[in-house]
Design a protein that fits this description.
The protein is mainly alpha-helical. Helices cover about 65% and strands about 0% of the residues.
Length: about 290
């Protein structure tokens, strides 16, 4: 009997996958996936989420990742505001394995969107207050969740709208810079090459803004300057190159070209593992920022 029930559930999941491939059935499939996700909300606070429920929600989220990643479904996915459904999982703080699995898989949905480097996606993520959520996870999450969250912020900054948003005011900039600096401190104690690479690339992109460039000439963590991470980066020549590029750039005059060059992380998003609101200081890019960021 138990096997029969399992077979039925597998059939339903497989049917949802097939329905996502059909434009006429895709809407209903997304509704069913959303119901699966919402059904676990009551177990988030207080944290009573069972591993089996978390697994079902993660399976639904994994399917949403495919919708977010595909160029033909990405825009309708945003218009339906489906990414909002993952925010409650990102707001959780429980260190239980089931919660961490949900957070990482939810970040994977946003990562699939951000990887497209589409200005429409960036504007949606900024309006939805994704940056504060990612910054909190970058400061408190596991290595994997920190890595995916940092990748999302990096991709947002790759877009000119995202960079202008972060550098629009000293408050926004220093909130991001403070989190990055704390991550560097933590990485001196527990090195992670892949996480450090994303942190370095965030710093490197920030140097494309003249105000941020000026601030980082005095605020870049000393451990990035003095060879502390040479051993950590020894087996990753690309990461070492990005660090040297950052140091060389900060040693020279400010860049006059505000536009990004080739993406320094061509390998794409880190593996997000198996399985709202608006307003605030990051609610949208300011039309006029400060003349400098001392």
């Amino acid at each position: 009997m138990a096997q029969a029930v399992k077979d039925i559930k597998m059939t339903l999941e497989e049917q949802l996958v097939l329905n996502l491939c059909e434009s006429e059935l895709r809407g209903n499939a997304l509704v069913e996936l959303s119901k699966e996700i919402v059904s676990v909300y009551p177990a988030l606070s207080p944290p009573t989420l069972l591993a089996s429920a978390a697994t079902r929600a993660c399976n639904a989220l994994a399917l949403l990742q495919t919708v977010a990643a595909h160029p033909l479904t990405r825009t309708p996915f945003l218009k339906a505001r489906i990414p909002i459904f993952v925010f409650p999982f990102l707001n959780t703080t429980s260190e239980a394995k089931s919660f961490e699995h949900l957070r990482v898989t939810s970040l994977g949905v946003l990562s699939a969107l951000a990887k497209a480097e589409d200005t429409k996606v960036v504007k949606f993520l900024l309006k939805s207050e994704v940056i504060p959520l990612c910054l909190r996870i970058m400061g408190t999450g596991s290595e994997l969740s920190k890595t995916v969250a940092t990748f999302i912020v990096q991709k947002i900054m790759r877009d000119e709208v995202g960079l202008q948003h972060i550098c629009a005011t000293p408050e926004c900039f220093f909130q991001v810079a403070s989190v990055l600096a704390n991550m560097v401190i933590a990485l001196t104690e527990q090195p992670s090459t892949r996480l450090l690479k994303h942190v370095i690339c965030c710093y490197l992109r920030l140097t494309d803004d003249p105000r941020a460039y000026t601030a980082m000439q005095t605020h870049l963590p000393e451990s990035l300057r003095n060879g502390t991470f040479d051993n950590c980066l020894r087996d990753d020549p690309a990461a070492m190159h990005f660090l040297q590029q950052l140091l060389d750039k900060l040693a020279g005059p400010a860049s006059v070209d505000p536009h990004p060059g080739p993406d320094p992380v061509a390998g794409g998003a880190p593996d997000p593992a198996p399985g709202p609101g608006t307003g605030g200081s990051h609610g949208g890019p300011s039309q006029t920022g400060p003349s400098h960021m001392h």
